[in-house]
Design goal:
Elements: H1 2-15, H2 24-32, E1 37-41, H3 60-66, H4 68-71, E2 79-82, H5 92-99, E3 107-111, H6 114-117, E4 120-122, E5 128-131, H7 138-153, E6 157-163, H8 169-172, H9 176-187, E7 196-200, H10 209-218, E8 221-226, H11 233-242, E9 248-252, H12 263-270, H13 281-296, E10 301-305, H14 307-310, H15 313-326
Parallel strand pairs: 1-2, 1-10, 2-3, 3-6, 6-7, 7-8, 8-9, 9-10
Antiparallel strand pairs: 4-5
């Protein structure tokens, strides 16, 4: 299978996107990492990664369609996020096309569609308008997310993540209701063929013993969301400890210096995402401890990093890999 992938990858590269040749330092880092550790970026279609991931200049549309094979050649990039299914559910055939572009030991972290993770129906500009009747609806989640992902990705599933958008004040005032809905949803999902089902939140009110209990009961994992809307990683660790042992799922979304609504500011500051402009060594050091402990226990680790975490996701992956190896 591994040889089949590299043969297919060579043919694909001859037709289009060329990977940046891996350097000896990255190859040595990759060889030193535990096979349980899957590091990657939140997606792969950034032209500004020329010289880091791509050998040449390509447009976003080209990279989105055909760049994944070149991305997966990079020795440190053993995972990637698929976020676009959050906006529109993906068919099994689309997931399968992605799976065919990566080697067998590569893993995907996939966000569930917003039609089941958003408490509000939203207008085109993203403003919440009215309650979403399909919020945490198990039948919709199965039909539009779980079944297509299981069929299309199969053994390349890392984490299927229900990233729950910020709740309305009415739901925050009665947390038992969304907790019960989430519990019922997770209990209705069949076990994945590989990887885990995980839950990421955007309100600190979720971080309570009831969440631990329902995740444990359903066999699901907590996805650590590194985002200014949540407490820092150190304050989320008690929840991880309460769910130990189990695989680790992390999505490093946004540097805390930009604040809870800072995506636009981060995008403006970081430009084409080719430089690490705002390194966050404290978060990285905390992550390293958790990753080493999890992988050292023989459990899988799935970490995806956004460009908006430090300025350039591939450079963040390299820095995190180096810190893991250095201990």
């Amino acid at each position: 299978m591994q040889e089949d992938f590299f043969g297919t990858a060579a043919k694909a590269r001859a037709r289009g996107v060329q990977p940046c040749p891996p350097g000896p330092a990255d190859e040595a880092l990759a060889a030193a990492l535990s096979p349980h550790i899957h590091l990657g970026t939140s997606t792969w279609s950034y032209p500004g990664w020329q010289g880091l991931v791509w050998a040449g200049r390509h447009g976003e549309a080209t990279l989105s369609k055909t760049g994944l094979t070149a991305y997966a050649v990079h020795p440190l990039l053993r995972a990637v996020g698929i976020d676009r299914g959050f906006y529109r559910p993906l068919a099994a055939s689309e997931f399968e096309r992605h799976a065919q572009q990566v080697p067998p030991d590569f893993r995907f972290t996939v966000k569930a569609p917003s039609l089941v993770t958003d408490a509000l129906l939203r207008s085109e500009d993203g403003r919440g308008q009215e309650p979403n009747p399909l919020f945490l609806d198990a039948e919709t989640a199965l039909r539009d997310f779980i079944v297509p992902a299981y069929e299309g990705l199969g053994a390349r599933i890392g984490a299927l993540v229900f990233q729950l958008s910020p709740l309305t004040p009415a739901l925050l005032a009665h947390m038992n209701e969304p907790l019960d809905r989430l519990h019922a949803l997770l209990l209705a999902l069949p076990k994945p063929p590989a990887g885990v089902i995980a839950v990421e939140v955007r309100n600190p009110e979720w971080l309570c013993p009831d969440l631990v209990a329902l995740l444990r009961d359903a066999g699901a994992r907590y996805c650590v969301g590194l985002h200014p809307k949540l407490p820092p990683l150190a304050e989320q660790l008690p929840l991880l400890r309460a769910l130990w042992p189990g695989p680790l799922v992390v999505r490093w979304n946004l540097n805390r210096l930009h604040g809870p609504f800072g995506y636009a500011a981060a995008e403006k500051r970081y430009g084409e995402f080719g430089e690490m402009l705002d390194p966050d060594p404290d978060t990285r050091a905390e992550l390293v401890r958790v990753i080493r402990g999890t992988a050292g226990a023989g459990l899988d680790v799935f970490v995806t990093i956004s460009n908006k975490a430090e300025g350039s996701a591939p450079l963040s992956v390299r820095a995190l890999a180096q810190a893991i190896v250095d201990g």
